[in-house]
Amino acid sequence: MKAMKQGGTGMATALARWIWLPTARPAWLPPGSIAFCLRSWAAVMLALGVAFWLQIDSPASAGVTVMILTQPLRGQILSKALYRMAGTLTGATVAIGLIALFGQDRVMFLGGAALWLGLCVVVGTLLRDFRAYGALLAGYTVAIIGIGCIDRPEDVFNVAIFRVSAIMIGIVSVAVVNDVTGSPTAWHRLAAGLRHGAAEVQRIARDAVNGQDSPDDVTWVSLAGRIMALTSQVSFARTELADSALRMTGARSAMVAMLDMISCSRAISGVLRMDQEVRPTILARVRRRFGDGTPFADEDEASRALEDLLLLEPGAPPLTPAEAYLIERTMALLSYGRWVRDGIRTLEEGRAAPRIAQDVHIARQQDPVLALLNGTRVMVGFTVAALICILSGLPGTTTTLIQVATILTLSITTFDTRAFGMGALIGVPLSTVCALVLDTRILPYGSGMIFFSLMLAPVIFASCLLLIHPRLMPIGLNFGVFFFIVLGLDNFHNYDPTQFVDRNLYYMLSSVILFFALTLAPPSARRRRFRIAMAVCMTLRRQFTGQGDIASPALISRQYDRLLQARTWTGHLPQKPITLRVFDRIVSLGDLNGALARARRHLMRAATIPAVAQPVARTQDMLRTLNLAEAGAPILGQAAHLLAASDTLPPADRETLIGAVSGLFGAARLLDRNARALRHYGILPVPEASR
To answer: What gap in Å lies between CA 69 and CA 498, rounded to an integer?
Structure first.
């Protein structure tokens, strides 16, 4: 009995160690990496076990699906699984249609497949997150199903059914394992990211009001980039919660408010750097009212605070536009702070807080030129690979063409296509070597699913660890996905090494073709940044003609997304002074667009106030007929005139007019700073009289 107790204690200790293994990790591994590897391994083995039990054709597809879907967060897995299923069904339908139309004409079939691949890449380039993956998957599924049946078109329907079945098995296996093991959730990661971002934005806002050193443009844009990156977590978290619509609305509301707080902080830092623009007494009152940055409790408190700051002592000089600008931007900081607080509360509690925006749309900057270029590159690469396979005359080259279409489509939308090319050149041979050793030296000497699972564990763990590392991710993706393809798992497996080598020569050929296809014509960071700059200039031109968007969540999110992309491409260029000056100019022109949009929004509201309707209309006309020879001076004059007229207005109308004055002052400052650039690039033509 004592021995049995000792044995039971030993088993309990071993079980406890296994359960706590994810936390007992080496220091060089990221947190949660071992748990991630264990979940992935369990999901792969569950998927393969079900596929073998059902005896579907090509059970390896179930393992491949798991390795493609494997992600650290539950929401990522569910989101990717959803779009993988949609993309597979779409691609399977198109493949069956192409085979039905051109089953006897290979040239027409391959041409149709190339066009479909290009179209899917264009759509995938314009989309984000796993929506893009779903579009790309719809493209290369046609290659997997259609090209795989090019010699036996009568089997295309059965092949499509078996592929969809294998993918469904992989999806269900991943979902079951992650539900049972309790994988981390995306919405908790989103809430933590929002709270961290809110604390950082509030700290920078407090420093700006107190006159401390302001970060440079790169730091501002980096902070905005971290906030914009949370849109991916919003997309993932939607699949985890029953009340996700309300919670994600709160998250988007908080994100947009944080971007507005960044703009306010930058504006305050800029006006405080100007000498003799703000009286010390006004500045002291603003800082005293701002306090520690705690948001106002309600609208009444905000209105009273604004009225107190606008009220001057008898005999004191009237407020200047610069002082009104400082007051309005500081009050906006506190107002946006309420939006951030209520948005995060809505996300965490699942109940609508008093101040969240219901119809918040976070817009992203699209690059249709890049999308067309990517689509063209895929069509050309696929066509060249098809010609190589046809001219070689080798049997079984359809395998090479399928792999080229798959990896080329997946990797073409990334900026660093060279990394994916190297990933294919390293990952495919590495997976081949591992599969060869396993197929000829290990698997023939054992049997049973337990033995098979233990032998696959090192390969799956290695692939997952490579996937976690950002720089090694392309190698990990190619290694993990191709391993099951190269191993050629089937219901009746053949361990003949000669057949293994013959089968996998075509995969090696595909890795060589992919390497050259992805490294010979990489995208240009300079051209991509140029297109971002052109988008900023065209948006600014529309503002000057009165046709641009007014200030809104979509405008500010698109503005910061442009700046984030410009910073990304700038980072891929030689870090010369001229490179950084171009980036600073893009930032400044983007700020001018935002200032004009904000001024137009407040002026449109002020135009409904009868007492100031005429001067507001003149100001609106002035913004559409600017004379760059005078730059911002006339706008400052109009701002001072409107500021003086605001003294006799009711509090609500006065607040609206102060907002217009603030927008005009910000636009005037930025016009003076960018007048030469506006003339040089022809964004705002100079009138004939001033030439």
So the answer is: 32
- Residues 509, 521, 415, CA angle at the centre, nearest 5°? 100
d(CA 290, CA 306): 11
In b/e form, how buried is each residue of 321-334, taking b as 16+ CB within 10 angstroms? Answer: bbbbbbbbbbbbbb
Q: How many CB atoms lie within 10 A of CB 388?
A: 16
Q: Are 303 and 372 in contact (CB under 8 A)?
A: no
Task: Give which of 276, 233, 270 is closest to 255, Cα–Cα.
Answer: 233
- Give the CA angle between residues 311, 313, 317 to the nearest 5°: 90
* Residue ranges of domains in the chain, CATH in brackets: 33-184+365-520 (no CATH), 186-349 (1.20.120), 525-681 (no CATH)
Alpha-carbon distance 306 to 653, whole Å? 12
pLDDT, greater one: 179 or 525: 525
User: How far, in Å, CA of 556 to CA of 624, rounded?
Assistant: 21
CA distance 326 to 321: 9
CB contact at 8 A, 355 and 344: no
At 598-647, the pLDDT tens digits run: 888 888 888 888 888 888 888 888 777 666 556 677 888 888 888 888 87
By the 8 A CB rule, do 65 and 170 touch?
yes
Residue 20's CB is within 10 A of a number of other CB atoms, namely 9
What percentage of the chain carries pLDDT values higher than 70? 82
Going by pLDDT thresholds of 50, 70 and 90, the confidence category of residue 6 is very low
- At 370-389, the pLDDT tens digits run 888 888 888 888 888 888 77
Sequence-distant (≥ 6) Cβ neighbours of residue 203 within 8 angstroms: none
pTM more than 0.85: no
Counting residues of the chain whose pLDDT is more than 90, the rounded percentage is 1
The tokens describing 228, both together, are 């914009």
pLDDT tens-digit series, residues 233-287: 887 777 777 777 888 888 888 999 999 999 888 888 888 887 557 888 888 888 8
φ, ψ of residue 71 in degrees (nearest 5): -145, 155
Count CB neighbours of 531 within 10 A: 17
pLDDT value at 493 more than 80: no
DSSP 561-576: HHHHHHHHHHHTS---
Mean local confidence (pLDDT), 8-29 = 43
Give the per-residue pLDDT at 624.
73
Chain-centroid distance, C-alpha 521: 24
Name the CA dihedral angle for 678, 684, 687, 690, rounded to a multiple of 10 degrees.
-10
Residue 683, φ and ψ in degrees, nearest 5 = -70, -40
For residue 29, give the DSSP letter.
S
How many contiguous H segments (helices) and E segments (strands) does the chain have? 26, 0
Contact between 223 and 200 under an 8 Å Cβ cutoff? The reply is yes
Q: How confident is the model at residue 196 (pLDDT cuts 50, 70, 90)?
A: very high
Ranges of beta strands (E only) in 535-684 are none
Q: What is the pLDDT of residue 511?
A: 65
Distance CA 265, CA 206 (A): 8
pLDDT one-digit tens code per residue, 401-448: 777 777 777 666 665 666 666 776 787 788 888 888 887 788 887 777
| CA 19 – CA 207 distance, rounded (Å) | 46
* Nearest-angstrom CA–CA distance, 101 and 116: 14
Please give the full DSSP string across 331-368, using - where no structure is assigned.
Answer: HHHHHHHHHHHHHHHHHHHSS--SS--TT--------H
